[in-house]
Amino acid sequence: QNPKTSTTVKQLVAEGNAGELQKYFGSRMEFGTAGLRAAMGAGISHMNDLTIIQTTQGFCRYLEKNFSDLKKRGVVIGFDARAHLSSGGSSKRFARLAANTFISQGVPVYLFSDVTPTPFVPYTVTHLKLCAGIMVTASHNPKQDNGYKVYWENGAQIISPHDKGISQAIEENQEPWPQAWDDKLIDSSLLLHDPYATVNKEYFKDIQKQCFHRNINKETNLKFVHTSVHGVGHKFVQLAFKAFDLSPPFAVPEQKDPDPEFPTVKYPNPEEGKGVLTLSFALAEKDGAKIILANDPDADRLAVAEKQESGEWKVFSGNELGALLGWWIFTCWKNCNRDTCAIKDVYMLSSTVSSKILRAIALKEGFHFEETLTGFKWMGNRAKQLMDQGKAVLFAFEEAIGYMCCPAVLDKDGVSAAAITAEMASFLATRNLSLSQQLKAVYHEYGFHITKASYFICHDPKIIQQLFDNLRNFDGKNTYPKSCGRFKVSGIRDLTTGYDSSQPDRKAILPTSKSSQMITFTFANGGVATMRTSGTEPKIKYYSELCAPPGNSDVEQLKKELDELVNALEKHFFQPEKNNLQRKTE
């Protein structure tokens, strides 16, 4: 019943434009563990009023089946500031339609009255003991996209088999229920609650448990610049600084207010490096700030840059910031816990494609480190399991600039990470140390971990399949490569098929998934490289790392070796020219 999308469809029918109609109606968006992520527009392959109603109807029925007390506990729904004029879709509208679906079935809904960071939804699920949470956001995707992210009652993103169960329930509930389109009904309903004020108060109270140097924060002369890249982060990072008794950061004026057009950046993704930070650098130079903190548009990720003595800006990779935050959070824990026995219950986690620096710190310091599959859904669920067993999960991170620094949120959280990073920088400044100097100190202490990651863009699923099939049948049927250029392959783990050459039974320990491609190569020189497909974008990504034991400080030699390994990987395994792959462009 959305006039804009139905007009689009009627027009295409009148024109007899079968090609475009095929694009819109050829296949339904797939509901996976990441929920939905697609462009806004008409048809079942896009995010629009109808597909949101259908998805929520399926999700509602699935929750009714799983929770006898759903009508007592309810769900939370949050949204970002995305909007798409030509199809009339927006995150707020989708959130209201989803709320209407639940309320029509007698389910209480905690719908935020304004935009919020993604981490507020898992926080609310846990804090209010709700059955589930929905966040309408496409995070840092291009402006025409939107998404529908789902959390379970444990406060973590869903994992299998919930995705399959919800997907099936969507298939079974496609016809909109009688009042599905009339979202005005929710405004007078007693089942509608607004958690905005409560959560804003409680969240900032909870993250203060990670504040250990309030006096230093009050006194520091260090200046920070913050950008929310036209997303929702501005207000919340200001409040996080206030909760830590830090002076507010300078906000990049052109980017501080939510704007669905993202007018000043090509991609609203701070992971893309310096291009997104141009305005931040200019403001920092003007105001004499040494450190830049950048959130992505839904404020669940954080990028950090620091001005070096040379005058250059260094943008830390996700792995480098993970090393710094891991060191910092453990140091703060150690200072508060003099009982040496407590360390046996301390854990840190990272995803399998992230740097193994936490493993090196854990080995030397005596706490536990675990790796999980890629994505915070795995780390969040594992953290909850460990916490339920009485363990302390201090920190989890992934190289894609995602950090979980606070046990109150079982997902990545760029708001708490911003305040904790600012406190760490302020503390180091009292020792006359920069973040870059401290990073070097961490590597000297625990061994250098040099990483390099990038991606190729490929819109053709057939080519992607062919590329990975080729790696599995490299020297004849069912044989993986024995070398990559001059680099000898010493081990293979294929998490698509479940093969691991290093295990006695040749079976991988981490869970496998046939629906996504992921192969890890270990090389005789100690290097590790993983190739995988992205769950939310048309990308084939790679991640590589060379680790050296403590004491080996020939960093330049390590970097050179890793560069050569990555070049060989691109040339022999990706074969970009042959496969028509588009390189990541700055």
UniProtKB/TrEMBL annotation:
<comment type="similarity">
    <text>Belongs to the phosphohexose mutase family.</text>
</comment>
<dbReference type="InterPro" id="IPR005845">
    <property type="entry name" value="A-D-PHexomutase_a/b/a-II"/>
</dbReference>
<dbReference type="GO" id="GO:0006166">
    <property type="term" value="P:purine ribonucleoside salvage"/>
</dbReference>
<dbReference type="InterPro" id="IPR005846">
    <property type="entry name" value="A-D-PHexomutase_a/b/a-III"/>
</dbReference>
<protein>
    <submittedName>
        <fullName>PGM2 protein</fullName>
    </submittedName>
</protein>
<dbReference type="GO" id="GO:0005737">
    <property type="term" value="C:cytoplasm"/>
</dbReference>
<dbReference type="Pfam" id="PF02879">
    <property type="entry name" value="PGM_PMM_II"/>
</dbReference>
<keyword id="KW-0313">Glucose metabolism</keyword>
<keyword id="KW-0119">Carbohydrate metabolism</keyword>
<dbReference type="InterPro" id="IPR005844">
    <property type="entry name" value="A-D-PHexomutase_a/b/a-I"/>
</dbReference>
<keyword id="KW-0479">Metal-binding</keyword>
<feature type="domain" description="Alpha-D-phosphohexomutase alpha/beta/alpha">
    <location>
        <begin position="201"/>
        <end position="307"/>
    </location>
</feature>
<keyword id="KW-0413">Isomerase</keyword>
<keyword id="KW-0963">Cytoplasm</keyword>
<feature type="domain" description="Alpha-D-phosphohexomutase alpha/beta/alpha">
    <location>
        <begin position="347"/>
        <end position="446"/>
    </location>
</feature>
<dbReference type="GO" id="GO:0000287">
    <property type="term" value="F:magnesium ion binding"/>
</dbReference>
<dbReference type="GO" id="GO:0008973">
    <property type="term" value="F:phosphopentomutase activity"/>
</dbReference>
<dbReference type="InterPro" id="IPR016066">
    <property type="entry name" value="A-D-PHexomutase_CS"/>
</dbReference>
<feature type="domain" description="Alpha-D-phosphohexomutase alpha/beta/alpha">
    <location>
        <begin position="29"/>
        <end position="175"/>
    </location>
</feature>
<dbReference type="InterPro" id="IPR005841">
    <property type="entry name" value="Alpha-D-phosphohexomutase_SF"/>
</dbReference>
<dbReference type="InterPro" id="IPR036900">
    <property type="entry name" value="A-D-PHexomutase_C_sf"/>
</dbReference>
<dbReference type="GO" id="GO:0006006">
    <property type="term" value="P:glucose metabolic process"/>
</dbReference>
<keyword id="KW-0597">Phosphoprotein</keyword>
<dbReference type="Pfam" id="PF02880">
    <property type="entry name" value="PGM_PMM_III"/>
</dbReference>
<keyword id="KW-0460">Magnesium</keyword>
<dbReference type="InterPro" id="IPR016055">
    <property type="entry name" value="A-D-PHexomutase_a/b/a-I/II/III"/>
</dbReference>
<dbReference type="Pfam" id="PF02878">
    <property type="entry name" value="PGM_PMM_I"/>
</dbReference>
<dbReference type="GO" id="GO:0005634">
    <property type="term" value="C:nucleus"/>
</dbReference>
